[in-house]
Amino acid sequence: MKTTVMELLHQTVVTRGDQPALKHKRDGRWDTLTWKAYEAQVRMVAKAFIALGLEPGKAVSILGNNCPQWFISDIAAIYAGAIPGGIYTTSTSEQCHYIAEHSEANIVVAEDAGQLAKFTPLWDRLPDLKAIIMMNGADADARVHAWEDLPGLAAGVTDTALEERMQSQQPDDCCTLIYTSGTTGNPKGVMITHDNIVWTARKIAEICEADHREQIISYLPLSHIAEQMVSLMVPMAIGCTSWFAESLEQLGDNLREVRPTIFVGVPRVWEKIQAKMMEAGARNPPLKKKIAAWARKQGLAGARALEAGKPRPSFYPLADKLVFSKVRERLGLERCRLFFSTAAPIALDTLEFFLSLGLPITEIYGMSECTGPATVSLPQPDAFRIGWAGPAMSGTELALDASGEIMMRGPHVFKGYYKNEAATRATIDPEGWLHSGDVGEIDAAGFLKVTDRMKELIITAGGENIPPQVLESKMKAIPVINQVVIVGDRRKFISALLTLDPAKIAQFAEESGSRAGDSAAAAGCAAFRRHLQGQVDAVNATLPQSWTIKKFVILPEELSVARDELTPTMKLKRRIILANYAAEIENMYAD
After folding, report:
1. Alpha-carbon torsion (75, 77, 80, 81), positive or negative
2. Does pLDDT of 552 surpass 70?
3. What's the CA gap between 372 and 201, in Å, rounded?
């Protein structure tokens, strides 16, 4: 039966009212908000929103890091008949303006003075904006309200007025906007319905066999559908607990405090964990290194056995006792039974690294337009294949069109793009198939592998169609390489822009007989480049001749969100990257 978000939350309050819903750090200690108190806060804030003039169908823009106020504001907006829309904390003032104006935001909820400052110059350019609420702190402007002001504002609105807003909504109504990252232009507002959210949350819980005992840590941007599903909506569906990490920098410490039972990371998070683990492992004495190397062989063999549905090697339990269990405990993941990677393809090198340590990271493929997941891979023989994104989520369909484009159909497919019927028609065909824009393959068992973005195919001067993500993934298997951008559209050969992993430069330099200590030095060191060229040659040996990487440039620093080279979800903005490094690219093709 189709259900609204309000009904979902209330059902959980009835069954789990006194159980912990949210935990956050205050003055060094974890504070708890029960499900009953959570719902009460949502209702209070919804009434405060109404008191401030929030109209049904208008928006509430939320700009802040993960915290209880973010969750409460999001659900309160829905209760009040409005539509919440998250804005990435890294967004500029102009990006904030676009989303708030496009969504017709009546209210903005900003984390602190720093985020408020992005909106204060915009009052005259946002005709729908009526008030700004600060999660933390206060401001002298009468139009700006502190979080502590909300109970007083709510007192002027009756429960009946709130109930009318709630009862007027239907499961097929849009209840939230997810703004896409905008790799090629302004972001589009993805309209997600109550039914999209509730159905998907319940389905994820069912597939993962999750219940109220789960412990989830919230740390990825809540503006992204993945984090909303993982830490906001799935817990609401099953009544489990979400803990808020203090920051990305403190995630390691918080993991050891929370000890989550399910952990979701984007590839960059897993890569950073891998880098730190490899750095720590390099400092081990020789005997420990030998034991670890032996255990990792057992771990990878165990993963291959799991993939094939065969028993693990006989020495796997010993490797687990000596090495894997200690690694999990050190990471704070000893209770974790599911490790997911999502939002972008993860390098095979990273997957195999964690598999070799008894940490089977599995992939989820999806997009905002299908409310998060389209496929779910699990560490079990019928749902796990290394480097594949798993089978279609049960209750949904997955297919490829004649061009190899991945298509999805089911209750998770979104309502359409807000104020953009043309884009909606171009994305959802008359038969209800959502066209992803991704290219992939589906094997006989229904497993999906994503190979590239359709619009990012490189067509060389010789007419070869080359998927850059395939080459980028292969290049990132070289341990010292951090980021890769393949170049070659309308060019006579393929080349690459590379960034190096700072944590691995010293070791790689030592292996190559180089004294380079950073990227800039490495770029100018002949010995370092020769050693790296040898590894690039090894990758080239696995490729068709026309795909091989003939030249590369080592960039002096990592690609960044701040320079608009990456989206907030760490996707490459190829057009901007190519423009920023046009001179370096032209030099590669000068001969």
Report:
1. negative
2. yes
3. 10
